[in-house]
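Each record in this resource describes a single protein on a pair of labelled lines. The shape at a given residue is found from the number at the same position. The record below illustrates this layout:

***
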Amino acid sequence: MTSERGLSLIELLVFIVVVGIAVTGVLSVYSLNARSSADPMVQKQALAIAESLLEEVLAKPYTYCDPDDANVETASSSAIGPTGCATTPEGMGAEGVEDRYSNLTPYDNVNDYNSFPTMTGINDLMNAPIAGLAAYTASVRVQDAGAFNGIPAGETLLVTVTVTGPGNHSVSLSGYRTRYAPNF
């Protein structure tokens, strides 16, 4: 009795099919990673833009009166009168001709950004386009947060900044801003 060694033709074909399927799977994953390798850069850039814009908005005051109003520091309500605003209560959206890019009448309150139009291409505060960011868009939404963590309703705003980059990769960041007026 002789013992035969080696592979039969069927065993060899099964081996080739299994290895072929495995190689195809590995190559398709590699191809997917190679096609989307720029995505982390787009996401990181969108996140940096969103953080910057959210920081800009939250750094603005949130008061009962427009910061140009004579009673902005002492007003305890948005009503016009001795305990309220002298002439200009702060409302949602920019007052009059206020504009993010204006030197004379810039946005001066968190609420002003609610009317901020969606930016196509990212511009600095002088309204100059920032190189390399033309494919990004940014929008800002400001809304009343209601009662929040023991703070009465109407005293806290929720600010949401959404930035969309190439390939529709989007990032949304939110932050809260509480009213600090009156500031005796």
Remarks:
- Residues 39-178 form one domain.
- The first strand starts at residue 119 and ends at 120.
